[in-house]
Amino acid sequence: MTSLPPRTPWLIFVALILVVAASAPAATLQIAGPVGAQVRLADRDLGMLPLAEPINLEPGVYTIQCRAKGYKKLDQVVVISEPDVWLHVQLRPVLLERGHVVTGSVLYAGLGQWYMGARVRGWIYFLGETGGLLTALAGELQMQNAKDDYTNYKAAYDAAVLNSDIEYYKEKSAKAYSDIEEMEELRNTGFYVAVGSWALSILDAMILFPNVDVGPGTVPPGTMGMSTPSTSGIHAAVTLGF
Q1: Coil, strand or helix: which one is 1?
Q2: How far is Cα 17 from Cα 190, in angstroms, rounded to an integer?
Q3: Spatial contact of 97 and 70, defined as CB atoms under 8 Å apart
Q4: Hey, which end of the chain has fewer CB within 10 Å, N or C?
């Protein structure tokens, strides 16, 4: 009689464990929503809706991410508490509103871009207006200081008697007047940058507003006319939104 190799029982045991694990009941997740929307589940790219088939998942907590042009970003947590459960998730992202985008940009540069998800452009416009305003304020304050210096030096120049004092206050007055012109130019530059960033943000909101290019959504294949699962499972409908 031929004896089994020493490792054979262990290999059979491992194979049995794998078979049992593979046959263990898992929850079924079916996702529907706007046609063409990009969907991710727990950092796993599922592709665009409608999905070709449901997803089998072990019990746990999952985050569904839905991204579609013209819609707000949608992140929704789904909790699967037990295996052999059927979940039908209908994604309903909220449409972006052009009026809100334009109004945000009118209030302050970059706010409209943040609202519609263009965060990089939003930061560029926001920093442009903020930096421009701060530069304009600094230029205005320095210009006022230079004006005060010029007034004082000019008064001292007019009252000077000695040639040395006349030359000294004349030079100081000229330097203060030059500082006035430089600070005025700095103030104007900052103001132009701030106004330019604000105007570009508004134009961006009006021209680059993302129009919807996906449909209202369909039920994924296989859900129409589907019978209720057996008593060992549960059917639940989950509506996602903001």
Answers
A1: coil
A2: 71
A3: no
A4: N
Question: How many helices (H) does the chain have, and how many strands (E)?
Answer: 5, 8
Residues in CB range of 222: below 8 A, 6 or more apart: 30, 53, 54
Indicate whether 114 belongs to any domain: yes
Residue with tokens 């746990």: 60
In a domain, 2, yes or no: no
Containing structural domain, residue 174: 98-207
Are 137 and 42 part of one and the same domain? no
Based on the domain organization, do 82 and 117 belong to the same domain? no
Task: Give me the residue label for tokens 């930061």.
Answer: 123
Q: How many domains does the chain have?
A: 2
Q: How far apart are CA 66 and CA 92, in angstroms?
A: 9
Burial tier of 12 (Cβ tally within 10 Å: 0-12, 13-18, 19+): exposed
Q: Summarize pLDDT for 167-216 with one digit per residue, the tens.
A: 999 999 999 999 999 999 999 999 999 999 999 999 999 998 877 655 44
What's the chain's average pLDDT? Answer: 78
Decide if 222 is inside a domain. yes
Count of other CB atoms within 10 angstroms of residue 107 = 11
Same domain? For 68 and 142 the reply is no
Based on the domain organization, do 79 and 106 belong to the same domain? no
Residue given tokens 């421009």 in the structure block: 132
55 and 113 in a single domain? The answer is no
How far is CA 156 from its chain centroid?
Answer: 59
